[in-house]
Amino acid sequence: MTDAAAPSDRAGIEGRVLAVVASITGPRAVDTSASWRSMGMDSLDLLSLVTSIEDEFDVRIPDQAAMRLQTVADVVALLSPTS
Amino acid sequence: MSSRRAADVVVVGAGIVGAAVVWRLAQDDVQVDWVVGGGFAGSASAAAGAMLAVYSEVSAHQDGDVRDLEVSTRRQGRALWDTWLPALAEASGMEVEVSAGIHVVGRGPQDGESMDAIRDAAAAFGGRCDAVAPADVPGCSPDRGWEPHEAVFLADEASLDGGGLLDMLGAANRARPSVTVIHESAATVDRSGVVTTDDGTELVAGAVVLAAGMRTADLLQASGLDALVPTLFAGRGVSIVARSPESVPGCIRTPNRSFACGLHLVPRSDGLTYLGATNRFTTQPSADMGPNMAELDDLITSGVRELDARLRRAEVVSMAVGHRPVAMDRLPVVGRTAEPAILLATGTWRNGFVLAPMVADLVAEEISGNGTVGKHPFAATRSIRPPELNEASIRRAAEGIADALLGGGSLAAGRNADLVAFLQAALAREADVPGGDRAVARLLERAPMEEALPLVFDLLARRRR
């Protein structure tokens, strides 16, 4: 991939990620740079999050990469096509 | 700013195993750089009851060979402490009070099986194990209706003040001219064993011993060397130290219980009492996360009603969280890795305090090139077979989850067994069906262990809610 993601792509991805997060935490305002822990999510919630993101975006996120994801923004960055 | 230091051995880890390895190496006049940055908050040592338990750690349903190996190893560790403690007291000028013997109290059928296993193990090894009338266990004052059904006194076991012991071991180590304490944290280690600390100092030595509990795996992962360490999980435990009007005269414990509190009360110095501990299996611990309400509720509710109802008036002095490092075969992970300059000393699970001198001996023997040199069952390079999830282990998990759900209460007449049977069927299905819930499949792929089954229950309950 050679093009940086257009802002609208990113916004679309972020919206879908937030919907997955809401399916786990219940609807609430989410700061995309907040840690999972500050959102009350534990390792089991993260496991659900990662597998739901995989289903939603039809990707595979290995454990190593999954453990590096700290925030919604990290997930969006992982899923966004970059140069 | 970077600088370099040279020593014979670098030891990383401020908990009981790291401290014991340093002390043992110091006896051979090995020059040690001891990396203690960050202390041991969140590690198993931080929350441990520090029981020197040999037989009372035995569980029912253990494979006979594994039981014998574990008991004989704990016997070695226990015996070594009898020579270590006076030497440490002399070297440090400090004392730690040892409470001789442990009372084990059991109630209900699960405890009953474990009590039988404890008696069997003591008999097999010639350990002292005396039946005691439950009402005669000193300091045991359960709530009405929660009295133990049986009790034994294990005279060969002991408990001590874990915090005091760590202080004494630290002081003894610092008093040795051959030991230099490095107050930074280890950031990375390379294949030749050079440790780089947070401030960029390079610690160069012939060997490095990673004895940082769960963090051992994190450090190797940060260094791109995660293949050197077997997969480690954590048993997250919460404990409380309280000031009770009636301090407990000696250590009282229940047998280990699957997925629930194996409770223990341990006398601490200054009239304080330690109550531990929860045990929640986790594949991905948050070491800096404090106790949550459910953990405290479990611990306090069970501790007060089963061991000492008077504790409800006790003033809470401190709480701690610890992560017991455990490999898939639940045995310690000790000795040289595939990179000969890097040695491990971790995976001591519930037994870090009792095993520390034995683990330290194994490490020292490997470093000096004497003795068994890796020919022990705990070698870091052994191949670890994931345990099998079978009908019996799933049944035990179902019983444990049902007990936890019932919280000591009961369902409508005759329905408790139905709940267990239903949970067993549901867990067996989830553990078996590849097309089932993917988060469950992923969890069990990572940790195909009986200990992970309660997490399957939690995961499914959350996802369907």
Number of helices of chain A: 4
Q: How much helical structure, as a percent, in the residues of chain A?
A: 55-70%
Provide the residue-averaged pLDDT of chain A: 87
- What multimeric state do the chains show? heterodimer
Strand content of chain B: 15-25%
Order of helices and strands of chain A: HHHH
- Strand element count of chain A: 0
Query: How far apart, in Å, are the first and last alpha carbons of chain A?
Result: 6 Å
- Taken from the alpha-carbon principal axes, the silhouette of chain A is globular
Q: What's the pLDDT, averaged over the residues of chain B?
A: 93
Task: Characterize the main sheet of chain A.
Answer: none
Low-confidence stretches of chain B: none
Task: State the secondary-structure class of chain B.
Answer: alpha/beta
Q: What does the overall shape of chain B look like? A: globular
Q: Can you give the helix content of chain B as a percent range? A: 25-40%
Can you offer a commentary on this structure?
The complex is a heterodimer of chains A (83) and B (465). Chain A has 83 residues and is mostly helical. Chain A contains 4 helices and no strands. The longest helix of chain A is centred in the N-terminal third of the chain and has 19 residues, at 7-25. Chain A is globular, with a radius of gyration of 12 Å. The N and C termini of chain A lie close together (6 Å). Chain B has 465 residues and is an alpha/beta fold. Chain B contains 12 helices and 21 strands. Chain B has helices spanning 16-27, 44-47, 64-92, 108-125, 162-174, 215-222, 293-306, 352-368, 391-406, 416-432, 438-446, 453-464; strands at 4-6, 9-12, 32-35, 42-43, 51-52, 98-106, 130-132, 150-160, 179-182, 186-189, 195-197, 202-204, 207-210, 232-243, 251-253, 264-267, 272-276, 280-282, 315-327, 333-336, 342-346. In chain B, the strands form 3 sheets. In chain B, strands 4, 5, 6, 7, 8, 14, 15, 16, 17, 18 and 19 form an 11-stranded mixed sheet that branches. In chain B, a hairpin with a 5-residue loop joins β20 and β21 (342-346). In chain B, α3 (64-92) crosses α5 and α11 (438-446) packs antiparallel against α12 (453-464). The longest helix of chain B is centred in the N-terminal third of the chain and has 29 residues, at 64-92.
